[in-house]
Design brief:
With 112 residues, the chain is mainly beta. The protein contains 1 helix and 7 strands. It is globular and about 40 Å long.
């Protein structure tokens, strides 16, 4: 699917069911994915089966960025097993291996 950030169009995969959201970008080295949840959520994101850091952009129902985090992949050391989520509910999550330059308050355009 296509989304737009500051007039720039990006192709992303859509994760809109429990299977695609659970798998995410695991086992990959590149890509961008937009997670659509059925309603606002406080779901925590893990980095199991990822080999590179991910940029996480949490969006509210109005498609506005409410939180940005850089997530580190898990190693064999359980101390690296962090879970990521903002301090308030979100409706969408945009994951990317590359930094998209989004900041809190930025809008993202897409049709679902």
């Amino acid at each position: 699917m296509e989304l737009k950030i500051r007039e720039e169009k990006l192709e992303v995969e859509l994760a809109d069911n429990i299977y695609t959201r659970a798998k995410g970008l695991a086992f990959r080295k590149e890509g961008k994915m937009l997670f659509k949840f059925p309603r606002e959520t406080r779901a925590k994101i893990d980095m199991m089966f990822l080999s590179r850091p991910l940029h996480l952009y949490f969006l509210n129902s109005e498609k506005e960025v409410i939180n940005v985090q850089e997530a580190e992949p898990w190693s064999f050391n359980p101390k690296t097993w962090n879970l990521y989520s903002p301090d308030r509910p979100y409706r969408y999550l945009l994951e990317s291996f590359e930094n998209l330059g989004l900041e809190e308050g930025d809008g993202v355009e897409f049709d679902l």
